[in-house]
Here is the input.
Amino acid sequence: MNEIPPFASLCAPIGPLEDGHGRTVRYIRLSVTDRCNLRCAYCRSGMETFIPHESVLRYEEMEQLVDMAIDMGVEKVRLTGGEPFARKGFVDFLERLRAAHPALDIRVTTNGTLLGPHIPALKSIGLNAVNLSLDTFDRAKFERITGRDLFPRVRESMDALLEAGIPLKLNAVAMRGFNDDELSAFIGYALAHPVDVRFIEFMPMGEGTRWTDACFWSATDILAAVREVVDIRPLSEEQRNGGPARLYALTGPDGPGLGRLGLITPLSNHFCAACNRLRITSDGALRTCLFDDREYRLRNALRHPRLGIRAVRRIVS
Here is the structure.
């Protein structure tokens, strides 16, 4: 599957992406960089090495991959990192994507620390949504887990996104012994603001992870704790818009909340049957599943002097 196919096969028509389980891919997550300005304890070993610059996909190559994916039925692209705003030229890249694909659902996942100055441009581009990773509302905890005292900057960015009318989702990795005592703060934010506050079960990912059984805070336990704070009502599949989160409407002491609670359960309740996404790393490796370490190398095919994107299309299909 990593080999470049015979030239004759490159001319064959390419239909929608569908896997062996009958799932049609409508969504790709594209990492624009492996660099990050934070050093979060649960995802970094402290001994990381970065991908050499020459091995990272150029923006022009990423644009080719997005063009190809749209031709094959993809409707949504999420740009991630590392921290995407740490890469020079990222906003210009977003502008080119929007100009080339006005109807494309374009979203960004960020830690929010570098976001603030770019919010007017994101509003102008028509960015569909921002997912902001935030595991605590406590400044001291934020510094302890990220290695940076930047929580006030993140909060300013959250306020500015809401003021600009850009849809916001907060993603918190649920960890016993770290943020399980802050449930009221997260729920209070969802009650007061039109955001989805989503707890993600802590996954054992990567060689540098600090995942242990003691850290695991299951969605079942989170839900039980939430019910002690507010009334909740599960939302329908249609209201979830096909995403992996189980969503709940919240009602607090002062009435219905403006936001919603989400639970993402990669460990306790797999959502594999409904998965419709592929992931592409910043150095051009295609990953079909977070639980599978296999990768399909696209970069060399993409940079082939004669075949380029046509070879990539056949590898992906």
